[in-house]
Write a structure and sequence with these properties.
The complex is a heterodimer of chains A (529) and B (303). With 529 residues, chain A is of the alpha/beta class. Chain A is built from 21 helices and 20 strands. In chain A, helix 20 links the parallel strand 17 and strand 18. Chain B has a single domain, classed as Glycerol-3-phosphate (1)-acyltransferase (3-Layer(aba) Sandwich). Classes of the chains: A alpha/beta (529), B alpha/beta (303).
């Protein structure tokens, strides 16, 4: 049976309660009659022969690129860059698709006799990956071959000696890239496209760039003009990245881009209830829901987090394309939208969403309040084409425990951001002008970013800018079940139940509000007419 | 015996008159041993219970295997031919207990007809316990190949040792053509496997089992290319196993480069083997003690 498309369900009196994520656990909420629930499409049928598809992509590139073999020669310098631990979410079951692609590229390189090969994790300003995470991404064979030789590197945006300033774009944006990438005879980029924001020129222009370069598009003005940043044709973030990408190409950096798309087969069988529509739950799914919910509710937060972060997704490949960056990305976007797009008629007054335990920046870590904000108002709010799901001045209701907990080794600057910046203001523009520079240049954060596993000092600011468009658009934000202190610190209102939250929202949007619930993850992208 | 033979008939066996055609009885042992019964449901269930509850823990105790490359089998459809180098009787139970579930319980093992099937009791024990099927290894025998092909067409996986017998010195031996011929005939993929350390545990001339460490490296499945003959495919299997060995002794990338430049150290010595071959082989053996560091040195999926 072919996978069923996503759809918008209108809640009536016989509709069962709707499943919502609530951090490390779940909730069943009865939504008001007349609400609409957006269900994502079912996972697409995967590519049957993954190795064959990778091989085909490398030998039949799209755009004006030659096949990989024609680009390889024995004396060349080959650099392979790949996406970091923020993709996919949760991490996929081994073998990771990056491993399979990198091994295939290296087999081609070995058959030609290319000896000078370097691999780089394209971290941008993200934290360095741990050994276990790197092994998972590239596989033990590649790790054991390249890491001891010092040929498996992690991008260091603060290593001035290893960054090259290529120049300024026509809009005066600095383009500064990793030296290995600039000096390579061929730069192969291995990407995973989980959402439509990923990939394209953003891979290299952001992934291998410095703060000096990234700040031209990771800022409030850009984010407010990206409507949404998941829609590259209406995203200032992408326009800037594309300018930089073309500049990099014109500067002579030869890029062979490989992009992959995965289906939404996000959770293993034991969590199948998460991807099944509630009225189709079997006895087994009801039992596993009850078992999982009860045990996660009873477990202390650290244990629940440990359990959930151990989940490995059985993601399957739906497409792999290689060649010239822009042509490859067009095909990738088709695949992403084929999997995620749901058509919706009209906006609503209230948008509800359950926030899960994981976002791109807390893999194997704690989701702190700033990341809760970013996941809700940055990522899920922006999962739209054309218009936001909620009207101008509407309300977003998020469900998450929102505990004021931080991971001091991965997110040190977040702690200071929470304590020093958010206590003063939550206005993104003031935050940007008043505080960004001091956090970005702080030598201790830079030291931790370069030598430990910390996100760059400026990263919490970017999280805040990520939600700037939503903050400007919305009339209010309510967090159900969230820690009241932490919720108010973010500038939001706490509510103990969904019914209370909807009641509170009516004071902003008026009586009898219309409501849309985003039933994610698995992810969906709403096309709002 | 000689004295009994000299006794007169009827105290000894009668002689056959030369003018009467000899009525040869076809032996039901050796390559002709019928093993269908060993693949019936009840026997398979018994074998699975023994394999999972007795053989696996015993093998783990005796050979402490470290496993590499299992991820290469992730979406490989059955049936598959597993081809490994061979230096010990431990090899078969070791591999059977390490194969991923979907192969393990539907797997037959090609065993030397002259060694494992020369007595009725041995034939029943090996086909019952390990799912062995008799393969003639000394001479060309059509029946052996037909039985193996038939089983592959019935979706049974096949474990075979292309060297045709255990190594006398732990070094590799020339591969026989049977595996490649079978792959060409059936069109099924061959998974090359490199085994190491089992010669030290229970080699061909050992009188007792000495528990130790072993390593198993599963290779990327090989399929016969258009127009490839059994000889060249057989060589490719052999080179792949050499490469798997080199992967463990050096690393994956070095092995790839060595193979592309045709400088892989072969497992099978060229010419007469000398002490130097033995020296090199033993230098590469798995360390006798496990590192206390965790995860282990190779970050493998060791069990």
């Amino acid at each position: 049976m072919s996978p069923r498309p996503g759809f918008s369900l209108e809640v009536d009196r016989s509709t069962p309660p709707t499943l919502m994520w609530h951090g490390d656990g779940f909730r069943l909420e009865k939504l008001p009659v007349g609400s609409r629930v957006l269900y994502p499409p079912e996972p697409l049928d995967p590519t049957k022969d993954v190795d064959g598809a990778i091989e085909f992509a490398l030998t039949h590139p799209v755009g004006d690129s030659e096949p990989l073999d024609a680009l390889l020669s024995p004396d060349m310098k080959l650099v392979i860059a790949f996406d970091d631990v923020s993709l996919p979410l949760p991490q996929m079951k081994a073998p990771d698709i990056r491993q399979r692609i990198i091994e295939t590229i290296l087999e081609h390189a070995a058959s030609v006799g290319v000896e000078d090969v370097t691999l780089i994790a394209a971290l941008a300003l993200h934290r360095r990956m741990t050994e276990t995470e790197l092994r998972h991404a590239v596989g033990s064979r590649v790790y054991d071959s390249f890491h001891p030789r010092g040929r498996l590197l992690q991008h260091d945006a603060e290593d001035e000696a290893n960054m090259v300033h290529l120049g300024l774009t026509e809009h005066g944006e600095d383009v500064e890239l990793n030296r290995h990438a600039v000096e390579a005879d061929l730069l192969v980029y291995v990407n995973i496209n989980l959402v439509s924001m990923d990939g394209g020129h953003k891979s290299v222009a952001t992934g291998l760039a410095s703060y000096r370069s990234i700040k031209h598009h990771h800022n409030v003005a850009t984010m407010v003009h990206s409507r949404s940043f998941m829609d590259m044709h209406n995203s200032e973030l992408h326009t800037s990245n594309w300018r930089m990408g073309r500049f990099i190409k014109d500067a002579g950096v030869k890029i062979f881009q490989i992009e992959t798309t995965l289906n939404t087969n996000t959770f293993p069988d034991s969590f199948s209830f998460l991807a099944t529509r509630e009225w189709e739950w079997t006895l087994r799914e009801r039992a596993s829901y009850l078992g999982a919910k009860k045990s996660l509710d009873l477990a202390p937060p650290w244990l629940a987090r440990e359990i959930m972060h151990k989940v490995r997704s059985p993601y399957q490949l739906t497409g792999v394309h290689a060649g010239e960056v822009e042509e490859v990305h067009k095909k990738t976007l088709q695949n992403v939208f084929r999997q995620q797009l749901v058509h919706v008629e009209g906006q609503s007054d209230i948008l509800t969403m359950g926030l899960p335990f994981i976002g791109p920046y807390n893999v194997n870590s704690i989701m702190n309040p700033i990341l809760v904000y970013c996941l809700g108002l940055g990522y899920l709010f922006n999962m739209y084409l054309k218009k936001p799901l909620v009207r101008q001045g509407g309300v977003v209701i998020m469900s998450h425990p929102n505990r004021p907990e931080f991971d001091s080794s991965f997110h040190p600057s977040y702690i200071d951001f929470y304590d020093q910046v958010l206590t003063e203001t939550t206005d993104p523009r003031i935050i940007e002008s008043k505080y960004e520079e001091s956090f970005a240049r702080d030598p201790w954060y830079i030291h931790l970013y370069r030598n430990a596993n910390a996100y760059h000092g400026v990263h919490p600011f970017y999280m805040w800018y990520w939600g700037a468009h939503a903050l400007e658009h919305l009339g209010g934000v309510i967090i159900v079940g969230g820690d009241p202190g932490a919720t108010r610190r973010l500038g939001f209102q706490p509510a103990s139940t969904m019914t209370d939250a909807i009641e509170m929202a009516t004071s902003i949007v008026g009586r009898d509000p219309s409501l849309i619930h985003l039933h994610t993850p698995p992810l969906l992208m709403a096309e709002v007419n | 015996m000689a004295r009994i033979n000299r006794l007169p008939f009827p105290l000894s066996k009668p002689q056959w008159p030369t003018s009467v055609q000899l009525n040869r009885k076809i032996s039901k042992l050796g390559p002709n041993f019928e093993t269908d019964w060993s693949r019936r449901y009840g026997v398979r269930l018994f074998r699975a219970v023994v394999l999972d509850n007795f053989v696996r823990p015993s093998v783990k105790f005796v050979a402490s295997p470290e496993v590499f490359g299992e991820d290469r089998l992730i979406d490989l459809p059955t049936p598959v031919i597993f081809a490994a180098n061979h230096s010990s009787h431990i090899d078969t139970p070791l591999l059977l207990s390490l194969l991923p579930d979907r192969y393990r319980h539907r797997c037959v093992v090609a065993a030397g007809a002259d060694y494992f099937f020369d007595r009725r009791w041995k034939a029943y024990i090996w086909s019952g316990l390990l799912g062995a099927i008799p393969i003639e290894r000394q001479k060309v025998n059509r029946r052996s190949g037909e039985v193996a092909s038939k089983l592959l067409s019935e979706k049974w996986n096949l474990l075979i040792f292309p060297e045709g017998g255990r190594s006398p010195n732990g070094l590799g031996q020339e591969f026989k053509r049977g595996v490649a011929q079978l792959a060409v005939r059936s069109g099924r993929p061959v998974v090359p496997i490199y085994l190491e350390g089992t010669f030290e545990i229970y080699g061909k001339n050992s009188s007792k089992i000495k528990p130790g460490k072993s390593r198993v490296n599963f290779g990327k499945p090989l399929t016969v290319e258009d127009g490839e003959d059994p000889r060249s495919f057989g060589l490719r299997i052999q080179r792949s196993i050499d490469e798997l060995a080199s992967e463990l002794h050096d690393d994956w990338w070095a092995a790839k480069l060595q193979r592309s430049s045709d400088s892989l150290p072969p497992l099978t010595p060229v010419g007469t083997s000398t002490w130097l071959h033995d020296w090199q082989r033993t230098a590469n053996l798995p360390p006798k003690t496990t590192s206390r560091r965790w995860p282990r040195r190779f970050g493998s999926s060791s069990r």
